[in-house]
Design goal:
Helix 4 (159-171) runs antiparallel to helix 7 and helix 5 (174-185) runs antiparallel to helix 7. The protein is an alpha+beta fold. 32% of the residues lie in helices and 28% in strands. The protein has one domain.
Length: 255
């Protein structure tokens, strides 16, 4: 049975805190209680828009590499997606990093019915399922949203920008991809009850496809949850970017 290109995506947001401003237009957004006000300056920026890289100086080599590896897009305007309740007291959303994980694969599945040892097992047969991945891709992209983009000449040195790229560094770490790949490749050989993938006593290819996709989805969710936890730990260690990152934070620890 051939199973071709499948993709699934999860988007996660995280926020960074900055001191409140007294400018009225910076408080003109919907708050957690559902109240909203508006001013002409906010209305002008109500829609999210890209920050064009061509308008900025070249980033330092390390950030350029992260932009390439993480497929990072810079945006501003509109509303953040993070929950402001996670911020320190008197904090506001100054920036957030949104990552999306996807996978695509091309696989072939085969199976064999395992013999029953005695009559009592005849009604509860097991199937050995073998999955061969002819291709398996891990795809990552990011959006870095900034409430107030810093001046172009200071952009790549701005503390908010640098903090958001610390998040990108986490979600693009090679260990993250490795975790997903290892989980996905456990499908190479698994045993399942016949009744789980059978229709009228025979293995059903559609149910096999569903089983494979369920395992792939679980691998994606587990990897995403791990990165979400690491993001929160980064914000805890730095108070959402208000403190420098420790030299050895130990944020990526995957066995």
């Amino acid at each position: 049975m051939l199973l071709r290109i499948i993709a699934f995506a999860i988007v996660v947001s995280i926020s960074v805190a900055a001191p409140r401003s007294n400018r009225a237009d910076e408080t003109s957004r919907q708050d957690v209680n559902g109240r909203a006000t508006s001013t002409s300056s906010i209305e002008a920026d109500a829609r999210e828009k890209p920050i064009e890289r061509s308008s900025l100086p070249l980033p330092p080599p390390e950030l350029a590499e992260l932009i390439e590896r993480g497929d990072v897009h810079l945006v501003t305007g509109g509303l953040p997606q993070s929950n402001p309740d996670t911020l320190p007291i008197r904090g506001r959303l100054a920036g957030e990093t949104r990552f999306r994980f996807r996978y695509r694969y091309d696989s072939r599945a085969s199976w064999r019915l395992l013999p029953a040892n005695d009559r009592s097992q005849a009604a509860h047969r097991w199937v050995e399922l073998t999955v061969r991945f002819r291709s398996l891709r891990w795809i990552v992209d990011h959006e870095v949203w900034l409430l107030e983009p810093p001046p172009a000449k200071d952009f790549w040195d701005d503390p908010v920008v640098l903090h958001e790229f610390d998040h990108v560094r986490l979600s693009t770490a090679p260990q993250i991809k490795d975790q997903f790949m290892k989980a996905a490749k456990r499908l190479r050989s698994i045993r399942v009850p016949l009744q789980q993938i059978a229709e009228e006593g025979r293995v059903d290819s559609a149910k096999v496809r569903s089983l494979i996709e369920a395992h792939m989805h679980d691998a994606l969710v587990d990897t995403t949850d791990y990165v979400r936890i690491r993001y929160r730990e980064l914000d805890r260690l730095t108070e959402h970017g208000l403190r420098p990152l420790p030299e050895d934070p130990g944020l990526i620890e995957i066995e």
